[in-house]
Amino acid sequence: MNASSTVVPIGLKTRMDDRMRLALDAMPVAVTWTRLDDGGCEFMNHRFVDLFGYGERDFATVFELIETMFYDPEQAGQTIARMRRFVGCGTLQRIELPSEEVLARCKNGAVIATAFNGVVVPEANMSLGTFVDISAAKLREQMLRRLAEEDPLTGLLNRRSFDAAAAAAISDPAKTPFGALVVMDLDGFKSINDRLGHQAGDDVLQHFATSLRKSFRRGDLLSRWGGDEFAALLVSPISAIDTQAVLERLWRELAEPIWIGGEPVQVQASAGMAFFPTDAHNLVELYRLADEAMYTAKRERKTARGF
Length: 307
Description:
Blueprint: H1 10-25, E1 30-35, E2 41-44, H2 46-52, H3 62-69, H4 73-84, E3 95-105, E4 111-121, E5 126-133, H5 135-149, H6 159-171, E6 178-187, H7 189-196, H8 198-215, E7 221-226, E8 229-235, H9 240-254, E9 258-260, E10 263-265, E11 268-275, H10 283-305
Antiparallel strand pairs: 1-2, 1-5, 3-4, 4-5, 6-8, 6-11, 7-8, 9-10
Helix pairs in contact: 3-4, 7-8, 8-9
């Protein structure tokens, strides 16, 4: 006799349901049990209640559960549409739902990253959903990505990730339209390091990074290339006048000295710019032109000071 058509005596079925609940309750992952005939929420194990805060009385149907818990409404809609193909349709085929990452909303409003899996078991009139908390793994993944992409001292992009972003902006302007490249170098940074020490130098670099964030526009990419060298990619559309206005905001941010070790330290910088595609059509040439413009500005500043 086919297993899907086996008739289970009522008493035995009740005992089997009790054993099923005990087994699911012992699972180390969050589990939900939904009836296939009407979509009703039959059971949630202790791990589910502990992780998300919901109980069986919070949802009448699996559709309410998905709509409430799935943080992404588009993902919720797609999952509900899949479930509607099985609930109340008398399907006889056992089906595994595709595994996916789900941002799940807890009853207290918190949102956690989970790995969701589901299986439809028509011969038992059930669908089972499991949620595994992957928040710690996602956090480690984010930390590793930041270590690979960011300068650890300032939190700006490092040189490698900036180069990759700039190259992508040139090759795919629809994603990040490349407008202007600005390269910057701190003036007199070595003397600050020599006179006040490396911690003072680090303080200056962090102060300059903060000033960059305040001065440049949302969406512009900011980078510390290394040492006291910095760069910014200003997304298009932007003109030379607009770029100069951004730099003027930066100079105003740097106008006030900062106090390090009980004495005022004036942070100053020189900058050069190049525009794509007006000045050059490739990254190497843009870097060269902006770098030359920066050193010209540095020489002119030194000449104006008389040294």
